[in-house]
Structure formats: C-alpha cells, structure tokens
Amino acid sequence: ADAAPVLAAQGVTAGYGAAPVLEGVDVAVGAGECVALLGANGAGKSTLMRALSGLLRPIGGRVLLAGADVAREPAHRVAARGLALVPEGRQVFPALTARDNIRLGAWRRRGLGVDVEAELARAVARFPRLARRLDSPAGLLSGGEQQMMALARGLMADPRVLLLDEPSLGLAPGTASELFAILADLRDEGVTILVVDQMADLALGIADRGILLETGRVVRAGDAQALRGDGALVAAYLGHP
Ligand code: ATP
C-alpha cells in the first residue's frame, strides 16, 4: 500500500519576522483522511495553513504535496498541484455574483475538457441555501452563505487536498453544524481535508485525527475521538460557546 501522505509538513519553521511563529512542525494528512488542527488563539494555526499553501515561505523544513517539495513554490503553483485553501475570512469578491466567485475555483481546470457549468451545478447541489443566492453579489450573502460559497469554490478545483481555515468563524451555531455536516459528507466521499476550527468539538467530530498546536509546536496528536473524549483538553482549547 502507498502510505505516503498527500500533504505533509516536515520540520516546518515559519514566521513573519525575527522570531519564528512555527518551530519544527510536523503534520501529515493521508489520502482520504480528515485531520483537525487545534490550538488557542495565536498558536500558529493560520500561519501553518499559509506555510502549507505557499502564501508564506517557510524559513526551514519541507512541505510535501503529492511527493513534491513545494515549500519554495508560490501559492498559485501549489494550487495548481492540487491544494485548495478556503482561507479564514473567506476572501470573496463582493461585487461578483456568488456564481462567478464559485466559477473562479475552476481556473486551473479550464482547457482540460472540464464542463465547468456541470461541475458548478454539482458543487452547488450540496448547499441548498446557496443555490437560491447564486445570482446575488457575493457581498450581500450572509456569513454562512459566503462560507458555503467559499467551500464550493474550493471544490471546483477538484483538489487533492482541501484546507479549511476557521470555516465556522462568525457563523451561528446552527449554521456551523450545517456546514460541518457537509464537510462530513465530503470526508465520506474520500475528499482529503485539513481543517482548523475554534469549535474543536465540531472539527474533531468529523476528523479521523487531531493535532494540537501550542505556541508554534505540535504538543499532541492522535485519534480524533480520543482527543474529543479528553474533557480537560476540550475545556482548555475548544472554545466552547
Ligand atoms: P487565531 O485563531 O487567532 O487566528 P492562529 O493559531 O491562527 O490564531 P496565527 O494567526 O498563525 O495564529 O498567528 C500566530 C502568531 O503570528 C501570532 O502571534 C500573530 O500575532 C502572529 N502573526 C500572524 N500573522 C502575522 C503577520 N501577518 N505579521 C506578523 N505577525 C503575524
């Protein structure tokens, strides 16, 4: 069996100035696996997402995507190799319609004989609430609808691995649960997922494994259900509402 991970950070050190935010971080996501990345505010979760996706060049270490070291590649090259990041805050184009925002996700597949409209219909079918808002400017969508739109955009890339940075941010609890139910469906279909979320209970609920980051280092990693059953850990990190 091919046990090589789809995505791996090996000894990644990264930051923004003199003092690194991440120090020697090792993370691996196997094919079809869903991994939840947890940690308190400022632990470095978003920094790791940026380092994995080419938005931030690590000072040291390797980032392997489907076997290739992409640590020194720009974000568009990493995306072209099959990594889709749904960033924190979603980064939508507010004046474009939801439909056009979602279409943008297919940029790397244009000219490959992919029926973009059919793919769009398939992606949107997962989000009944979004389907009714496709022709609205993205900026007028609710937070939940924008998050679903950003996720649909990510799916349009047919990624090898999907990175989600705080998908529940700013969402009402019911909407967050709805979104995580969709993520669980994706996981069941074999989509490889790395998800960061403050609602760790939700994130661990859909994950196979959890990784706990503390001040830029991995301090714990293991089976998601085991971590979820650890009351002290849940109380300390999971930011329960
Ligand atoms: P949060 O949940 O608050 O986003 P996080 O775990 O994602 O937390 P990061 O956003 O990775 O944490 O931030 C880790 C550290 O890096 C923090 O001390 C933060 O202030 C710092 N940092 C983040 N972005 C920048 C930046 N663009 N320039 C300088 N420092 C930054």
From TrEMBL:
It comes from the Bacteria. It is found in: Cell membrane. Residues 7-240 form the ABC transporter domain. Belongs to the ABC transporter superfamily. This is Vitamin B12 import ATP-binding protein BtuD. It comes from Methylobacterium crusticola. The gene is btuD_6. The chain holds residues 578 to 818 of 837 of the full protein.
